[in-house]
């Protein structure tokens, strides 16, 4: 009986944990950069793409430095149009993913907050903030609240499905410090 329980718990954990890590929509690409209308955003995007290349070359410190330059230049930008705003959010989502992977949780949190300032009901950002609250801040009640908000916004979406898994996982693993790390399973 104990063996069956342990095996079923392990299978549930592997499946659920793969859904309790940050998830993002689509990446900001160089093709997207060609569609940028705001001149300041276009100039700042050079730092973003440099950071992306450094990260892919496993030069994390240089990538982080370039992301910081991108964020600094973008803080000075005002009046993004709707199209540019969407592209900026894609860039922020990618940065958030990198920061989370590098365990730079404060930077991750700042990026997610910036996304939510632009798009307060962005399901990806709300989901990722829930993951942050569970994994890093160990604030289960805030994580539950955020996951439930994701589900309420669009119950049939990809992120609502991930939020449901996250809630089930949290119920099975209330102490995130004791939860096994299977984040290698679901890399986006």
Task: For the structure shown, list the relevant keywords.
188 residues, mainly alpha, 9 helices, disordered N terminus
Helix content: 55-70%
What is the structural class? mainly alpha
Mean pLDDT: 81
Approximate shape: globular
Beta content:
under 5%
Low-confidence stretches: 1-21, 184-188
Tell me the series of helices and strands, N- to C-terminal: HHHHHHHHH
**How many domain modules?**
2
Rg is 18 Å
How many β-strands, per DSSP? 0
| Main sheet attributes: strand count, strand direction, barrel closure | none
Oligomerization state = single chain
Measure the end-to-end span: 37 Å
Q: Number of DSSP helices?
A: 9
Q: Topology, pairings included?
A:
Blueprint: H1 2-17, H2 30-33, H3 39-56, H4 60-75, H5 82-101, H6 105-118, H7 123-135, H8 140-153, H9 158-172
Helix pairs in contact: 1-9, 3-4, 5-6, 6-7, 7-8, 7-9, 8-9
Describe this structure in words.
This protein starts with a helix and ends in a 16-residue tail after the last helix. It is built from nine helices and no strands. The radius of gyration is 18 Å and the shape is globular. Helix 6 packs antiparallel against helix 7 (123-135), helix 7 runs antiparallel to helix 8 (140-153) and helix 7 packs parallel to helix 9 (158-172). It is an all-alpha fold and 188 residues long. It has helices at residues 2-17, 30-33, 39-56, 60-75, 82-101, 105-118, 123-135, 140-153, 158-172. The protein has two domains: 22-116, no CATH class; 121-188, no CATH class.
């Amino acid at each position: 009986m104990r063996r069956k329980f342990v095996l079923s718990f392990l299978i549930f954990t592997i499946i659920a944990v793969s859904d309790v890590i940050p998830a993002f929509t689509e990446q900001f690409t160089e093709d997207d950069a060609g569609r940028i209308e705001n001149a300041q955003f276009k100039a700042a995007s050079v730092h973003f793409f440099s950071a992306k290349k450094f990260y892919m070359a496993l030069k994390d410190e240089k990538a982080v430095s370039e992301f910081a330059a991108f964020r600094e230049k973008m803080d000075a930008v005002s009046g993004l149009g709707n199209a540019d705003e969407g592209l900026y959010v894609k860039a922020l989502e990618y940065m958030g993913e990198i920061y989370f992977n590098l365990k730079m949780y404060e930077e991750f949190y700042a990026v997610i907050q910036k996304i939510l300032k632009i798009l307060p009901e962005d399901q990806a950002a709300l989901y990722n903030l829930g993951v942050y609250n569970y994994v890093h801040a160990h604030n289960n009640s805030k994580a539950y609240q955020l996951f439930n908000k994701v589900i309420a916004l669009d119950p049939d979406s990809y992120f609502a499905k991930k939020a449901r898994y996250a809630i089930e996982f949290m119920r099975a693993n209330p102490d995130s410090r004791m939860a096994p790390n299977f984040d290698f399973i679901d890399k986006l």
